[in-house]
Amino acid sequence: MTKTLDLLKSLIEFDSSTKDEANKTLQFCKNWLEQEGLEPVRLSNEGFDSLICNVGAGEKRLILNGHLDVVSGNPNQFEPKVEGNKIYGRGSADMKAGVSAMMSALSELQHKDLGNTSVQLQLVTDEEIGGKHGANFLTDQGYLGDFVICGEPTQLGIGYQAKGILQVDIHLKGKSAHGSRPWEGDNAIEKALETYQKILNLPFAKESTELFEGPSINLAKIRGGSVYNKVPDEAVISYDIRFLPGQSEKEILKQIENEIDGEISIHLSGASVMNETDNPFIQKLVTEISQETHQSPESVKLFGQHGFADTRYFARFGTPAVEFGPSGAAWHGDGEYAEIDSIKIYKDILVRFAESFSN
Fold first, then answer.
1. Helix axis angle, 188-200 relative to 249-259, nearest 10°?
2. pLDDT at 308
3. In terms of residue numbers, what domain contains 240?
């Protein structure tokens, strides 16, 4: 565990909240893997670097996917601090603990007989800003497999489904008039407020699944008006919609378009992740978690994620991808930490899972 923990401490020391520092962090990982006797390959896409490293030569491919970038933090968060079973620092949970365990696991796996399995480590540098140049690029280039584990912090549970994302701007037109005579105009901001209520009552907004009570609909921004004494003739209302697995992005847009009098522009969209618990790889992973954590298979937590991770880029190609990582808390917060004992357990689960992957 000392090697993995020392690696994690080194990763935390990088303020990888910027592209340049994230790329430097990736170069550090490349050097570390090479010192372990591995042969990582560095790729670049519009200035954002990624890393690929393979062990084994089997036909069944397991992908271990991790991101090195973090959200911004206070300077002292890039000074790792260990207190008891916790290691504090920016990115400790999200997700450098997962990355350090994956790298250590790969180092061990190169010395094992993997049978018909190959394992590919993928490290990217832009997950926190959307993943366009990392996981999106890699999957477009064909870096796919039979099963994907993204090492996001999941408390050693499995996030096997995730909502999709649809971020839209709705442009509404009104008619200007003097502020003292608003009845002579058509207030675009009032239209925006009416639009918000209409969207909350659309059919897609009322749907639910076994894992989710409903989609997440966040009124993120509203812009309109310039002076007090004028009826605003333009407004833009912006939504962050996280739709349910099984819902259609096109159908959601159609419902909105049929209800509003305005123009819609898409800022960002991404597929949902929809796996089933009877997937044989998920069942195998449950078994390994159960054995390593000394709990019954029924006690292993299986859940759905409201947010999204790089799993969505694999899901669009039909590749089963789950979030599975060590325990921690307060990611993106001032007190972010990872639980040290869970990192070793996580690494050991990855090794055992890879060894039995093609059985």
1. 130
2. 82
3. 164-270
Q: 241 with 109, same domain? A: no
Q: Please compute, for residue 52, the number of CA atoms within 13 A of its CA located in the half-sphere on the CB side.
A: 15
The 10s digit of each residue's pLDDT in 107-152 is 999 999 999 999 999 999 999 999 999 999 999 999 999 999 999 9
Final residue of a domain: which of 270, 302, 326?
A: 270
**Whether residue 179 sits in one domain with residue 132:** no
Q: pTM value?
A: 0.92
Count structural domains, the chain: 2
Strand partners for 181? none
Tokens of 146: 């039979």
- pLDDT value at position 1? 62
Quick one: which of 171, 95, 136, 150 has its CA closest to 269?
Answer: 136
243 and 119 co-located in one domain: no
Verify that 263 and 285 share a domain, yes or no: no
Q: What is the CATH number of the domain that holds 122?
A: 3.40.630.10
Choose one of 270, 286, 301: the last residue of a domain.
270
CA angle (352 as vertex; 347, 358 as ends), nearest 5: 130
